[in-house]
Amino acid sequence: MRIAVCDDDECEIDHLSELITEYQLSRGVSVECHFFHNSIDFLCDMKGGEYDLVVLDVVMPGESGIKVARELREKDKNVKLIFISLSPEFAVESYSVDAYHYLLKPIDMDALFPLLDKVKKELSIQEEQGFVLKSREGVVRLSFAEIEFVEVINKKVSIHLTDGVVREVTAALVDLEGEFLTRQEFIKTHRSYIVNLNGVQSIGPKCAVTKRGHSIPVSRQRHNQFQNAYMDFLSRTGTSVSVSDGQPMLSAEKQERNDGMWRILLVDDDPGAQTFWANILRCHGCMVKLAGNGEDALKLAAHETYDCILLDVMIPGEDGFSICERLRKLTHAPVIFLSSITEPNRQVEGFSVGGIDYITKDTPIDLFWAKVETRIKLAAKDRTQFRYGPLLLDLMGHKVLINGKELLLTPVEFDILCLLSEHLEHVFTPEEIFGMVWGGQPWDGGKMVQTHMSRLRRKLEKAWGEHYFIETVWGQGYRFVSPGN
Hints:
The chain is α/β, with parallel strands linked by helices. It is built from 15 helices and 28 strands.
């Protein structure tokens, strides 16, 4: 285990040195430890990846420990951070940089040793089940379990994680195949894709769909191999399998989504409240987008799809009640008020403008999460429509409306539009679109994609000429751009 300690107090450094030495002797382990007396020396030494654990004093001359941690995070996303301080007042702020723990001075072995044990155990698991790579964000350590799939687009390797984060890697796919394909849970579905079978929800004739809704192309040559590997994997893991009569689809039996992996828009102008509630949601696996006022919330809701919107009442500009009414016209995402206002008549007003629940900020954390989780699950059961500004996709009715008027599309045009809109801002190459829409047919060089795309774009432009929903990225492909981007 490699540890760095940064503290301007010489006595505290001596004390920590003694504790770490005693830890090594009591546990019979080797610890490589480096000590820094100021933040400048520490940051100059850091390049990313040198340490497994960094212990930072919060209050130091020059840059504070929190600021140092922010700079450190730009170089190393995965290093564990423990803040130490004489006061608990910086505890909440410390978690804005993903603090591992916060200890109050004077530090004793009863507080430190269990933490070091925990770090050591996690590092051991990571070494067995993960790897270290260099991405554009710096050196990162990934476990295999958190990887959903790997894709190559225009010679750029992107690793998609189960929490929605995407790591761009400075390596070729062939360089990473050895890390993945020796493991039973990973398989190559296409020359540009490797997928984690743990994250696969279903397999169709053209693509695999992950539990997070991503469509992964499956080439015709690899389809049987992939299907057999998936069946073997489900058998090994004890997952039941169902096959629909007359439908070329294999899927794991649908389970209730209870891992909290949802997209949530949190609207609150108080940075402290934003950090507090966002951390709770992220601890349950949610992906959280923040807005400080109603106008920003409306812009985000106009071009991104959310599973839930948490809305404070007292925000700058229009209050939450007024913003809720506007959101209900813009999105089908359930709106939950999260406010310090507790008066019953004001809560009733929240329901009257379209809120599906009203949670006061003094609500216990467990009850808060239970309410959010329940409301999302109930809303998700009936969700078949997605709105992007004036454009409404009705999956159940298999139709598209623009400003309330139906846009007549062919089944192929509808499939293309759904595919692109599902991945906002993602650039799809013509070959990717062809593989996902036409599946097993031989690649025609892009002529079919170009023909259908031209017709689709003309129809969209004629119906609403104020915005190009589908944009051509020269030399790369196509992407969906929602109004407001």
